[in-house]
Write a structure and sequence with these properties.
This protein is mainly alpha-helical. It is built from 7 helices and no strands.
């Protein structure tokens, strides 16, 4: 099924289309949730909520070509992940971050394995991980991120 066929099927309540949507987007959705939440159990809870929201709000989605369904779902997962962090009071920011100066040259980013980059992102304090994800992956401005999280923008 194409994305457009999936969208139309879900809008018509077709369970096969819902399954196709899940199969198509579950991997990307999980990867997005893990970037924000870290804990896989929390991710599974958020993903369940996200797919339920996507299925019930599919009429709000307007298909804009290949990839638009994936982008819409990624936005839902990012927003729900942030909401989950807020609900559980795990979205905190430190006044000072203890940063040790590297003792050697930083590695060439092109040769660092993706798993290592994901591990480093996961080690960031939760609030900073959210800001990083919103800026790097969601392409939000610092102003937009500050408004979304209810924090002051750093100068």
């Amino acid at each position: 099924m194409t994305e457009l066929q999936i969208v139309n099927g879900v809008k018509n309540g077709d369970r096969k289309a819902m399954r196709a949507m899940y199969d198509l987007l579950a991997g990307t959705a999980m990867a997005t949730a893990v970037r924000y939440l870290g804990d896989r159990d929390d991710c599974r809870d958020v993903l369940q909520d996200c797919f339920l929201k996507a299925f019930t709000r599919i009429d709000d989605f307007s298909y804009r070509g290949q990839g638009s369904l994936r982008a819409w779902m990624t936005r839902i997962v990012a927003n729900e992940s942030i909401n989950s962090l807020k609900r559980h009071a795990r979205l905190t920011f430190l006044d000072e971050v203890n940063v040790e100066a590297p003792e050697e040259e930083p590695p060439d980013i092109n040769v660092v394995p993706l798993e290592e980059i994901n591990r480093m992102i996961a080690e960031l304090p939760t609030g900073y991980r959210v800001v990083f994800n919103q800026f790097v992956f969601e392409h939000k401005s610092h102003k937009e991120i500050a408004q979304m999280l209810g924090i002051k923008r750093a100068r």
